[in-house]
Automatic annotation (TrEMBL), chains A, B:
This protein's pathway: Sulfur metabolism; Energy metabolism; sulfur metabolism
UniProt name for this protein: sulfite oxidase
Gene Ontology MF, one: sulfite oxidase activity
Pfam families: Cyt-b5, Mo-co_dimer, Oxidored_molyb
Length: 553, 553
């Protein structure tokens, strides 16, 4: 019983991953078993479970103590969700189906669980329209596609909305054929650190990242939002639409007939460095390190040339929307848009790329055509391009409207209004230390250690200086800019800059913190602390990059 | 004698403004008298001065105590420079004239003083070429024009290089006719706070600044670098030059024949908010508050239209240089340049403005033509436009090469290399609190105080959010954006944004600090602290604006 209290104490503010689970784990290491929420103990089954627990903890005693850490770790990964709960009422599918609108409340099922998600609809990071597609029925087929929902965090959230059960038979009936849409994904390089399996999201290790100015395709970070579509070059088409009318359909060869342009451009995910921001205050979202960025050459047709052929007048419209061939379960494609003034500006160097580093674009990076909008957040660089839509309206996709936006540190999921912030387009100035890595042990040579990293700014703004300190800003050392795009024109520096410095280290020092900050051509500089730029989606973590290292003299 | 020691102690690290001076002040309040540097006491005249001092301090005793503060204040303003010093050798003008090159050392005279400035040449903020014009002769005529040199700080600096005297006769002979070139300056509004008389530099009070979205001409900050030229519209010409060849000469009426454009744009001095930065670590330069910014409508001819008529190919050149009609004593005009890609881009909205707020541009703001380069530092918005030069080269003016640039906090006058930083063009994001002002006593009404200010970013980047905190960032409140340019196109928001907020105040609070930070369309945000962006010229002080106020409940 003492142990039980100890566990409760250690894990307060979280659901208690039930003691019953530990009993079963002890017996047969089966994992996906019935879990009980902490407050379950307060209801009428209290006596029954207390009995269970008392017996169980007495038996387990010593064993539990020894294996606690292992069990705890397993437990972190597998919070079962949708298991039958004896304390709740059981409904049939017809009853559930009636709850598909706000008046009647909105219910969904997951396995044997019934959930009232009415009050969560507006807070859904993926947008209310997406989640409403499951109203009155099962949410499971959607989570097969949006497989990033299959996390402890989201299981916990769903269970907090639990109101009942459906029978085992109904649950089986309810499960549609969910042939894995991710079964035909490309093979990826094993060195990539996977942040999300389905959709696939991964980044290279920092030390490899800065080994070359041009990132090899295999090491380029991948941020997919849906399964990778299978596209046959022979049948591929790109549809050009003005408002809702198709004006032209281009085949791959039609696109290649336009003059060929090559640019060197970095692409960065808005979530890059989120893992640092979540330490400040917990966030939902992929736990990106500093590797959600890469720098490549992109070859293709200029978007402005295509638009010129459509005889578009810039003043008549406001946005150019892009849609991909990657589809969600409802058939809705990934989508994004950029302002028309940018799209039609030849100086913006936007291209429909069919080559990456002089090779056909790999499937993970948008085969056969990816829009490259240099200086702009990765999310607008739409892969597997299917449609270009000239419109008065911004893309209405969830990723444009309800996702890639940034709010003040005091905005949370209870008060956020996504319509109040503009979609991220151009990115702010950022830098990161790639060598050494966090917590690394470094040999001091001749009183110095070598520090390396990257810096970048959006909007074509060149990196003009990178400053490094190892005494909290008392002394700033200016780094060498080792590699930059020497062919770039003024205001069109799309590439990253790689920098390094031999940083002087005091003799007696056993460990130290290294900070870096970059300055761009507009003399914008990174903010010092994450705290003041924290935002609920964990985007644009461009505060000073700070790492701690240990020193060997 | 105790008093004497006390004074020494209070003013250590500065030149001792001599005791002899105080004696004379007591007698007749004449101010510009002989001063003695502290180390003078260490040389062979030591005995003589010690006698003086002992007698003087005995007599002055009580009187001095009472009037100390007044004397001190007067003394702050008038550090004489160039007075005859009995402890130094006297040279004649021929001897001085020989010292006009580095081999022989470079000497200049000021009044009766002779100075060896050889080691200072490279550190001269105004560039080495300018100061070298005085080599071997008097620096006085230059300081009549660059009258901002007439400060205690620069007198002290010059005196630290003192090596000798010239005779009174030579000093008179040496003084050329210095009819004040500032005698024909326009009349300015008395509400302006003057930061420099000659050249004239002044800013409006913060509370007035944000009273209207469009700044009235009379309240618009003035930052002149030289005397205001007198220009007759009938004889005014604008010379268009490609490299060194004059291609066209336009009269005022020729410029007006082009299509007429109006933009609304803020202009900001790079030195805005320097007074905060100098508190972090002392700086040279005008002590600007937060008012070195204004927002006006500008009407005129587009620069790109003029350049199109010259049939310039963008790829053949790199820069567009501007020269003003304002001249230094050597006849060299004020000059600056911008990249040609910006100059030829119609989206950059650069105009040769002949109207400001629908009136002819006033003399202080560049009558009859000022180049408006929106989103770019004030220094490139050249007034009294005389020449446009298409060139492969950047402007070689001191203001482009050796002045408006920013370095790391560890760069000082001993190690600065101006060639290592790019000239400031586009400005970073900034904001300021204008109401209340620093140290103001504010009445709390219904638990709140009203806070108002401006925010702006260069490069046409719209202000998308302003956050305000009164608890060091624990809580951030998002301000209302009250006034912005609703007609601006995407990426072309040249105007400032005025914001306000009713900031909640805790009941018991007697005083508090208010911070503000703005975010622009690239999601660039201001850095927290001035310390980490401190730079030796005191430019681009865009850290959080922080003020302390007292509260009345």
């Amino acid at each position: 019983m003492i142990l039980y209290l100890k566990i409760i104490n250690q894990r307060k503010n979280r659901y208690l991953s039930s003691i019953q689970y530990h009993i079963k784990t002890f017996k047969n290491y089966h994992i996906r078993e019935l879990h009980i929420k902490q407050n379950t103990f307060k209801n009428n089954s209290y006596a029954k479970y207390t009995a269970y627990i008392t017996v169980a903890t007495s038996i387990l005693g010593l064993y539990y103590y020894i294996s606690y850490k292992n069990i705890y770790a397993l437990n972190e990964k597998f919070i079962p969700c949708g298991e039958f709960r004896v304390d709740l009422k059981t409904y049939n599918l017809e009853e559930v189906a009636k709850h598909d609108n706000k008046e009647n409340r909105i219910w969904v099922t997951f396995k044997q669980g019934v959930y009232d998600i009415t009050d969560f609809i507006e807070k859904h990071p993926g947008g209310s329209s997406k989640i409403l597609m499951a109203a009155g029925s099962s949410i499971e087929p959607f989570w097969v596609i949006f497989a990033n929902h299959n996390t402890q965090e989201i299981y916990e959230l769903l269970e907090s909305m639990r109101i009942g059960n459906i029978s085992k038979e109904d649950a089986i009936f309810n499960t549609i054929n969910d042939n894995d849409p991710y079964s035909k994904e490309p093979i990826r390089h094993k060195v990539l650190k996977i942040n999300g399996e389905k959709p696939f999201c991964a980044e290279p290790p920092p030390s490899l990242l800065i080994e070359s100015f041009i990132t090899p395709m295999e090491l380029f970070y991948v941020r997919n939002h849906l399964p990778v579509p299978e596209i046959d070059l022979k049948t591929y088409t790109l549809e050009l639409i003005i408002e809702e009318v198709t004006k032209k359909i281009l085949k791959f060869e039609d696109i290649k007939k336009y003059p060929k342009y090559t640019i060197t451009s970095a692409i960065m995910c808005a979530g890059n460095r989120r893992s640092e921001m979540t330490k400040e205050k917990q966030l939902k979202g992929l736990n990106w390190g500093i590797g959600a960025v890469g720098n490549a050459t992109w070859t293709g047709t200029r978007l402005c040339d295509i638009l010129k052929d459509l005889k578009i007048k810039e003043d008549d419209y406001n946005h150019i929307q892009f849609e991909g061939y990657d589809l969600d379960p409802s058939g809705t494609p990934y989508g994004a848009s950029i302002p028309i003034s940018k799209a039609m500006d030849s100086r913006a160097d936007i291209i429909l790329a069919y080559e990456m580093n002089e090779q056909p674009i790999p499937r993970d990076h948008g085969f056969p055509i990816r829009v490259i909008v240099p200086g702009v957040v990765g999310a607008r660089n739409v892969k597997w391009l299917a449609k270009i839509i000239v419109s008065k309206k911004e893309s209405q996709s969830q990723w444009q409207q309800n996702d890639y936006k940034v709010f003040s540190p005091n905005t949370d999921w209870d008060n956020v209004d996504f319509s109040k912030a503009p979609a991220i387009q151009e990115m702010p100035v950022i830098s990161a230390i790639c060598k050494p890595e966090q917590s690394e042990i470094i040999k001091v040579i001749n009183g110095k250690i070598n520090v390396k990293g990257y810096a970048w700014s959006g909007g074509g703004r060149k990196i003009i200086r990178v400053d490094v300190t190892n005494d909290q800003g008392e002394t700033w050392y200016t780094a060498n800019l080792d590699a930059e795009d020497n062919n770039a024109k003024v205001g069109r520096y799309w590439s990253w800059t790689l920098w390094s410095i031999d940083l002087p280290v005091k003799k007696e020092l056993k460990e130290m913190e290294i900070w870096t900050k970059a300055v761009d051509a507009s003399y914008n500089v990174q903010p010092e602390n994450i705290k003041n730029i924290w935002n609920l989606r964990g985007f644009l973590c461009n505060a000073y990059h700070k790492i701690k290292v240990k020193l060997e003299h």
